[in-house]
RES domain-containing protein (Oerskovia douganii), 271 residues
Amino acid sequence: MIEVPGARTCAKTGVRLVPADGALVYRVAQDKYTFRSGPLSSPVNKVVGSLPDGEIESRGRFDTVGRTVYFGDTPEVCFAETLQGFRLNRQALVADAQAAGQDVDEFIRDVTSDAVAGDRDTPWAVGGDWQRGRSLLYIRLPLEGWWVQIDHPATLNALHDALAAELAAAGVPLLTLSAATGENRAATTLLAQCVRDLVLDDGSLPLGISFPSKTAYGRCLAWWNRREDDDLMPSDTGPRMAGESDNVDTPAFRKVCEEWGLPILDGRLAY
């Protein structure tokens, strides 16, 4: 939990509020979407809580009905969030190495050697196609409004009281920080929708949710694009681009890749 200057507990809803301050934040996004729909493009989600049988889970942690856009307070946290799949591929080798009775580092060297010999990239290598298809965006947040801080006792207590039955049905009998920021999308999307629907004690609606990244590289924000959901033009006071975007090959990108042991390669066939 962090304490933010100017933060307060909402007298009406009980959640912890963090004031908007026009901060500069970052987003790693696919160019094919942002070129067509702008820097705040995002898919439209239609379901919160449990998905219908047979539907594949693809929602973000705090998606609500409508559009949710995610930002990070540092470039590093944005790359850490978006490179999870590559890291997962690398970590999966631990089980493979154990099954083969090999040391993990030795096993990784063997797989890498086989990939090089076959002119293939290892599954955990970040290829050129992935890099060229994305940009690091610089976004200036609103100067007014409130973010709801999810990792605060006041927020957890208020949401648990408001959603006790629904959370229990989603497999969360007791709302903890781990559950509120975990991988159970049936639970976290319920929390997000509850927060989105709140009317705060000053009559305003929450901008979104402030939460710690599970990667420990920083904090993230889930912002709800209410105006586009309502078929309205963007507001002059909403999030906006702040300068030019960067190719993803930045010091922050290389830092995360190095710390996670992810090779940075040109685009080739996957191993």
Summary: The chain is about 35% helix and 20% strand. The longest helix spans residues 84-100. Residues 93 and 264 are 18 Å apart (CA to CA). Confidence is low (pLDDT under 50) at residues 267-271.
